[in-house]
Amino acid sequence: MSRKIYKSLTLPTGDITSPVCVGDLPSFNYKVSLPTPTEAVTRHLEANPDLPGVILLDNGRLAGIIPRIRIFERLGHRFGLELFLRKPIIELHKNLAPETYVISDHTNIKDAVHFALSRPTHAIYEPVVVAYDDHETRLLDVYTLLVAQSVTLDNLNNLMGSINHIKLVLSINPGLEKTLDAIMGTLKKVVPYHQAAILLKEPSGLHLSARHVSVYTPSQPILQNDIYRSILDTRRPIYLEDVKMVPAWSNLSAIGDLRTWMGLPVLHKHVPLGVLSLARRSLSPFNKDEMDMAQAFTEHIGAALSNSNIHSR
Predict the structure, then answer these.
(1) Which residues are within 8 A (CB) of 263 and not within 5 positions of it... i.e. 6 or more apart?
(2) Cβ neighbours of residue 197 under 8 Å, at least 6 residues apart?
(3) N or C: which end of the chain has fewer CB within 10 A?
(4) How many CA atoms lie within 13 A of 37 on its CB side?
């Protein structure tokens, strides 16, 4: 079973991705069974210098890991090659007795960094195991985790400059698609999401597929959905930590296979134009700061829709 994983934090366009959780980060799937000769493992590690270590399996189940640096350090010590190189990898694992640190793929970047750096000093920079809902496990290099945290902090630090850019785009009004792309691209940097959509209140016959968002008129089931109607009627956002626990989600599921969701009213001069849908495919809750920032961005979306006169078509 294959898994789509970001190969890099940099996209071909030059944009830096904003991962929602550790499951979005590049990770490694090098696994061997316990009887595998240590020599075979070292050959593979030498041929693949980016691998941070190896996962050991016992009858298909996680039995532990050995970090790359621990393997070569032990083999480099006196009698290391003679004692372990031609023996099963389990013998080296028993000798080193490394701890195995496991986190869920849903864990957000901030919590994952805290988890990694809270380990004993000797283990801080060793890889962690990422566990997925389908019981797959992969190795995550802590360097990758720290880079992701750095990207997140840079995005927050540059927020004011990005907002000023949005205001400039709105004043130029280069067209709805380009304007929304600028707004949603900036929003995604500070409130990472897997999927975004603007569900318009009034029929428009419009469908845009910008890089960061789709804008369309909701289908009839969505229009009749209690959650959607409540957001428009009360002009207040609704946040669902786990959509699977909410019976009223049924019709809204048409917008995608999602897990965590929030819908925010898009207003212009207090008139509701539609709903901004932000969603994550993982069970990775939005925090209060993220919800507040998303709410602020709906004002720019409302202005963009107003400028295009989309709501009056």
Answers:
(1) 199, 227, 228, 231, 237, 238, 275, 276, 277, 278
(2) 213, 214, 215, 216, 255, 276, 277
(3) N
(4) 7
Instruction: Tell me the domains of the chain and their CATH numbers.
Output: 22-152 (3.10.580.10), 158-312 (3.30.450.40)
Give the integer Cα–Cα distance in Å for 175 and 180: 9
DSSP codes joined into one string, the chain:
------S-SB-TTSPBP--SSGGGS--B--EEETTSBHHHHHHHHHH-TT--EEEEEETTEEEEEEEHHHHHHHHHSTTHHHHHTTSBHHHHHHHH-----EEETT--HHHHHHHHHTS-GGGTTS-EEEE-TTS-EEEE-HHHHHHHHHHHHHHHHTHHHHHHHHHHHHHH---HHHHHHHHHHHHHHHS--SEEEEEESS----EEE-SS-EEEPPPHHHHT-HHHHHHHHH---EEES-GGG-GGGGGGGGG-S-SEEEEEEEEETTEEEEEEEEEESSS----HHHHHHHHHHHHHHHHHHHHHTGGG-
Q: CB count, 10 Å around CB of 222? A: 21
Quote the CA–CA distance of 79 and 231 in Å, as a whole number: 69
Q: What is the pLDDT along the chain (313 residues), one digit of tens a residue?
A: 233 333 445 544 445 568 999 999 999 999 999 999 999 999 999 999 999 999 999 999 999 999 999 999 999 988 889 888 999 999 999 999 999 999 999 999 999 999 999 999 999 999 999 999 889 999 999 999 998 998 888 888 888 888 898 999 999 988 888 899 889 989 999 999 998 888 888 766 555 556 667 666 677 777 788 999 999 999 999 999 999 999 888 878 777 788 999 999 999 888 999 999 999 999 999 999 999 999 999 999 999 988 876 544 4
